[in-house]
Description:
Blueprint: H1 2-56, E1 58-60, H2 67-80, E2 86-90, E3 97-100, E4 108-112, H3 115-118, H4 121-136, H5 139-163, H6 175-178, H7 181-218, H8 221-237, H9 270-286
Parallel strand pairs: 2-4
Antiparallel strand pairs: 1-2, 3-4
Amino acid sequence: xNTVKTVGxxxxxxxxxxxxxxxxxxxxxxxxxxxxAVVMNVSSYWFSDKIxxxxxxxxxxxEAEAPEIYRIVRELTQKAGLPMPKVYVxxxxxxxxxxxxxxxxxxxxxxxxxxxxxxxxxxxxxxxAHELGHVRHRDTLVMAVVASVAxxxxxxxxxxxxxxxxxxxxxxxxxxxxxxxxxxxxxxIVLPIAAMLVQLAISRSREYGAxxxxxxxxxxxxxxxxxxxxxxxxxxxxxxQVNPSMSHxxxxxxxxxxxxxxxxxxxxxIEARIARLEKRAGAYLGS
Length: 287
């Protein structure tokens, strides 16, 4: 169900991109939108992992430096039938973790130094299983593509602000090719917001899917629920210093939203995630 929902939302996001190009610049604007999306998606495919790791300040660690992490990752990847990913550590006290990489053969699992201080081995295993769930279902690539398309829409909106000053993208051609002022205003104001909401919906859907996969792979839904509860509590006390554009990557959203800001959360509510995991644990016990 999550996969079907993601495909549907990706289709909506693509339509928003094309509509943005059409409203802002007519037929020429649609062409610009498509070219921009292709360029950004190709760049995202090849470089999104390097960009994410650099922005997070993550460094690679050897098995001698982090034997416990390597042992857990190796056991889980063997169980899941995945290649062994690279292991990185982020030297921050805030507890968190993320995965990146365009496919399982180029995957990276990164954890903060702080997570090792607050979780048990059982909970760490469940957290890493969650991240490997993202890898297994190629969520890392999906979210990179989503971010690039949403970024293309935002970039088009910025271009439109300049285009309005010079009569649209079409210069002296007819109004169909130039777009129109009302369409440009819609493209500048409404469509980037719509794209962001779709991006957030996809991110939330993939988090639920990774929770399910993590519970299945670790065989311990309650350990993941317990880890999420700890991570949320400590993250409020020790915020993760990271660019907000990376929030969707982490198992717990670094910037904890509140009030109306929850509408723009990249993650489902922790309480809802914990309730689903506890329900899943109950189903295990009842079977």
